[in-house]
Design a protein that fits this description.
about 250 residues; mainly alpha; about 0% strand; flat
């Protein structure tokens, strides 16, 4: 049975939310400080995709405070990524009182798979999408115009790609959570598969450059994630049925 929170005053809920937010922000700041400690090697890794570009490409700092803002911006993004397990735990703890005891036991796998799924999305963007995207845009140059790009815009570009891909790769985790609480079923996901494919193509067109190759490269894993999500929902439903059948009347 879910815990009874009906007697808890509204201000108490706000107080609990405030402390969850404080802990989440603290985790992000700690993660940002850890990331900043390794900021130079991280910048080298993020610039590495430009080395595979065919032709000339130059990154330039166009403002006095450019590198300072870049380093702290990357540190903040790194802090968010490192804090994902803590953020997931805080969200789960906030909603846990409204869940059944059998649902609250999923906290450990949810935290683990949320982090791993996000990292998988970031890795996919870094190794697949970003190299293709950079090659596409640099290939659109003109004979007498050099490819000199602002390093601020470059990092904004790849950061959005990696974060966007990381969020999209959370689809199986989201489906798992919604299936556990009974809001999604395999039948529902299979029934709306054709609409999901249209949405996948739309999201892929937004995330990737406007060329068919990048669109296909992004659409295929997204479709795979959707099919995986159907399997995840089916496994959750099967487990819930086994537990229900094993429960004495």
């Amino acid at each position: 049975m879910p815990e009874n929170n009906s007697s808890m005053p509204f201000l108490n809920h706000l107080e609990e939310l405030r402390w969850r937010l404080v802990k989440s922000i603290s985790a992000i700041l700690v993660g940002a400080l850890i990331t900043f400690f390794f900021i130079d090697p991280i910048i080298s890794i993020l610039i590495k995709p430009t080395e595979s570009v065919e032709g000339f490409m130059s990154l330039q700092v166009l403002t006095v405070q450019g590198m300072f803002m870049i380093k702290w911006g990357i540190a903040l993004v790194g802090g968010v990524i490192l804090a994902i397990p803590v953020l997931t735990y805080q969200i789960w703890r906030f909603v846990a009182p409204g869940l059944y005891a059998s649902e609250r036991k999923y906290i450990a796998p949810v935290i683990i798979f949320t982090f791993l799924a996000f990292l998988s999305g970031v890795a996919f963007a870094y190794f697949i999408i970003i190299p293709f995207s950079i090659q596409f845009f640099t290939g659109m140059g003109y004979e007498f115009v050099e490819n000199n790009f602002s390093i601020n815009y470059y990092f904004n570009f790849i950061t959005m790609l990696m974060l966007g891909s990381g969020v999209i790769f959370e689809l199986p985790v989201l489906v798992f959570i919604l299936s556990v609480i009974g809001l999604l079923t395999p039948h529902f996901l299979r029934h709306y598969r054709r609409y999901a494919i249209v949405i996948i193509l739309f999201l892929s067109a937004i995330i990737t450059p406007p060329d068919p190759v990048s669109l296909v490269i992004m659409s295929i894993p997204l479709w795979g994630l959707y099919e995986l999500s159907i399997g995840v929902s089916w496994l959750v439903g099967k487990r819930k049925k086994l537990v229900k059948d094993a429960t004495p009347v």
